[in-house]
Specification:
The protein is α+β, with helices and mostly antiparallel strands. The chain has six helices and six strands; from the N terminus they run H-H-H-E-E-H-E-E-E-E-H-H. It has a domain of about 130 residues.
Length: about 180
């Protein structure tokens, strides 16, 4: 296990990070506002949340995230959220996403990020009513190549090993920076 992550605080986040998260964290784990919710998160969850906000923002999809419902950064890097009604059509039309091999049996729909061998997004909508979605990063993309698909199957399915936020951050090519190099850990 690696060293403990540096805990961040809402007030110390750069303005672009606070702006990206504003209005999306209220109610998370019972907290009334964004600052209280963010500050209550364990450091691994704070860093994972910032990775999602930044990556989905780069893809033009963060604006469709209405409210974050859960986030995890160890034992897999994931996010559960409520999305705007246009999220599924936006993913379906996005050139970086495909439905191919993306849906799990218990989900209504799924999308995999194309064109990334490492730290590829996998976004799923569970079956049932509502606009609840879940997203996680696959360390090895099942779509990038046959070798990458085998690495994905071996690591995640056979060994049951999922990446932590540090591995995803490294695979995304971020050497500790986030939102302009200000957030590190």
């Amino acid at each position: 296990m690696s060293a403990a992550a540096e805990s961040l605080s809402w007030d110390a986040l750069p303005p672009p990070a606070r702006a990206a998260l504003a209005g999306r964290l209220a109610g998370l784990y019972g907290h009334d506002g964004d600052a209280a919710a963010f500050d209550s998160l364990a450091a691994d969850k704070q860093h994972a949340l910032l990775l999602f906000a930044e990556r989905l923002g780069e893809l033009g999809l963060w604006g469709s995230v209405v409210r974050v419902a859960n986030v995890y950064g160890e034992g897999g890097v994931g996010l559960e959220f409520e999305a705007a009604a246009d999220f599924s059509p936006a993913l379906g039309a996005h050139p970086r996403f495909t439905r191919r091999f993306a849906r799990h049996g218990d989900c209504a729909e799924g999308f995999l990020e194309k064109g990334r061998a490492r730290a590829a997004l996998h976004i799923l909508r569970p079956a049932g009513p509502g606009r609840r979605w879940a997203a996680h990063f696959d360390l090895h993309s099942p779509l990038a190549s046959p070798a990458s698909a085998l690495r994905h199957l071996y690591a995640e399915r056979l060994r049951g090993r999922t990446p932590d936020w540090r591995e995803i951050r490294s695979a995304l090519g971020r050497a500790g920076e986030g939102f302009g190099g200000v957030v590190s850990g």
